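Quick bug: OstA-like protein output formatted oddly.
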Amino acid sequence: MKTYFISLLVLLTSLQVLAQKNQEINYDSDRTLKNEERYPGALILSKVDNQVYFDHDGIEVWCDNAVFYKSANFFKAYGNIRMQQGDSVSMTSNYAEYNGNTEFAFASGNVKMRRPQTTLETDSLFFDRIKQQAYYRSGGKVTDTASVLTSRIGRYYMEDDKYSFINKVVVKNPEYTINSEQLDFYSESGHAYLYGPSTIKSETSTVYCERGFYDTRADNGYFVKNSQINYDNRILKGDSLYFNRQNSFASATNNIRVIDTINNSRVTGHYAEVYRDKDSVFITKKALAASLQDRDTLFIHSDTIMITGKPEKRIIRGYYDVRIFKEDRLGENPMSGRSDSIFSDQQSGLTKLINISSRGNGKPVLWSGDNQMTGDSIHLQSNTKTEQLDSLLVFDNAFLIQKDSIEGYNQLKGKELVGYFTDNSLNKVIIDKNTETLNYMRNNDNELIGINKTLASSVEILFVEQQIEDIYYYNQVDGQLTPEEDFPPNARQLQGFNWRGEQRILSKEGLFEGEAEPKLTKIQGIALPDEPEEFFDEREEDDLLLDENSRLKPDVLKNRETDSLKFKNKVSTDSLKKDIKQNDSLKNVIEQEK
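Here's what came back:
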């Protein structure tokens, strides 16, 4: 008895569903005619005072004229057509067809579908009421509260208020234009997901990515996969980029490069911030600035690097454990240095190595060839036209040390040091005020003949191929040459001697010696959309989506491979729910970037 009751319930339920599915279309017309010769089995409905009216399962249609095939539950509508589904969807067109059994509609001629947030305009539109989806493939335009979106192919998911655009997608906003191969757009939020090669262009910047998210109303976005931002004179690249147009701000995370297209320089690292209006760049995590100078490159590395100023007035600042390295053209006599901080003015050509905190590892030090120079601060002056090194100044406690070719150290110290360069190589040094020198003197056969320790008011040293060639002493000279065996070993270092040769940087790779690799931030990716179900279902020959009297041949109501998503996950899951979850996660990413 129980089994019989359940079977009867299932049967009644099935019959109810079938009855609902085949619910007849209701109609009202001022004039109703028949023309069996031209329209066999159809009613011809016409407007006199009131438009022809159809009603079917929650959808209402008004038109001037119609051909209604009552037995097929199908009609064709002509002239000033208006369709209304509830309070949220309305559509107008010049022509329309509707099948009450399949709840499938087709509209053409100045089609406009209106939703609370958007208006869709196209030449022809398919509308599946069961799936609650609309589809066009002959070009369409969607007008949003902030933007106008166009594409050749578009699909609208009503339940999630989502558009999926493919093929020549363009988003036009008063402030920018987006071009993409594939784009998903959520009407309620104004959020857009970009897939494939995409650009966002404005008067002040161009964003490129191959996968990205953009909030078209808040004017900010998050981009991954080959992403970059081009400003007037800078290019920002990284594994992930955040961009806020209103604040003229961008940030980059992991494997980043900031390229200065005017000053032939670039900065790399793993986190950067760019403020366009302030012409400033902040970079950290293995920060490295590289500036092309006279066909050589000067590298600056520190914990943090900041670049500010207009292109012709760039200033580079580096903080904490600064290291610099520069090779000459032949790569034989590299120059390198270390300091707590660095200041470099590209307009004046002045670079300062200074200490400003307790985090420093000693006085600034500079090596030119085998010559080590230290002092409380070191200034390097470059020729702004040739970009070659011109001179250097060492202020307070100047100390020059050169390791002897065989043993010991040649040493010169004083209050201040001035050095001069030729072809980026040190060729003359003048040490002034209370100078002391200690030199290993050798004959032409490089045999040691003694150690010379001398006091003078100032000293001039000439170099040949970065080696000390001659020393000239001026005013109040007090010194003598002492045989090596008579010179006490404990007196062979001047007071303040500090040889730091183990810190010398001999290659670009040496800039990072002794440093741990930074821990990189885990990038929040943007997943490809899952492959959606096909819009047109496979049907039997006698089971038509519209009707045999439709303008459209059955072959038209079929899916085409050329119209399918190009960038997608080939997994049949609920893509819309996934997109919404992804939407929420990207909000968190953007909040963190802010």
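Actually, after a second look the formatting is fine. The mean pLDDT is 87. Closing.
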